[in-house]
Amino acid sequence: MTDPRPVPPGLQPYWTGSVQDFATVPPLDLEEGLKERHRLYSMLLAAIVASQFNGNKHGEAGDYGSWRKDQLISGTPDGVRLYRGGTYLGHNIAALAVDAAGRVIDYDFNHNNVFNSSVEHAESRLIRRLFSLAELPDAAPVLPRAGPVMPMFQLAVSAAPSAATGEPIAYTAGASPGLRRKGYSTLLTDVTIYTSLESCAQCSGIMALADLREVVYLQYDQGQYLIGNMMYRATAGPTPMIGRNDFRAPLPVPGDTFGSDLYDGLNLAFRQFVGLVAGEPFYKDGAFVDKGHSVTSFLCTDSALSVFAAAGRQLEQTETASIPAYQRPTRDGRILPSALSNADLLQHLKGFLDYARRQGGRGTAHRV
Ligand SMILES: [Zn+2]
Question: Closest Cα to residue 218, out of 57, 357, 38?
């Protein structure tokens, strides 16, 4: 008779309870200033998705029916329809990372098709890149006042002028404790990831290993069975078991906890897609007909694009922050000298969006 395996400590509080309890994160009580920040970053992320949008999941020719009529370039005399976007590089799922001071470090997209792989997800690609960025030297490059900002330097410089002084907000990696060179297990401990779609098991795992602060998502994904919630509960439960070698999963923050229009907009539009796609196929080309209700097909549709684009316009039209002086403390409760206020953040995000639209490709490593 062998020894029975003990229950892992993180699961002990839930072991004989309900799955519902284990998979449910207690209600979040976010400060109004933090809610505004989450909304602003979410708008930026949505704007980036809209700017790099490509709905050609099954190619640029064929018939996507009513789902992509706004993306139609033309019909040819032989009845072939062509859609804008060119070669499909990956799904319309993006993630961006924000450092301890509130600055956007970088973003990435799903690149499954570029690599012919099912694991090239936005969040995992982004986090792997953050570790390599963190190895950049601390010396900050000189920022041309009106020049473009490249993500390689996002760690160190921001093009957005400070609302207070009008000067570019310059900082060094050394002044940004969330990314200061230190042990890799805690390097990203104050980093927040914003992702347009709730994370899968792979990305939730990578985020837990990276000790990220939280993961904010704009749309839920029922296909991932609340894995992010369960990992959070297992690693942040009431049993104190976080030790030197234990990891903790990031706090999952769905869009409805901070009043983002994106969350309801995307979830509702996806449910409508699921309800209709059996009768109105997503795609037809000869004998090939796709009636599946994949979320990645939904993310090619006009309705998904319109939700992302509307949020992007909302960011552009936001002139002032509602809670301009709010600064977010780090995980250990400090306000960094370099911390952006919400007023500064709004300008920073507009500057980043301008960069992303002009130079930040989607199928490249965008100059990192
Ligand atoms: Zn993933």
Answer: 38
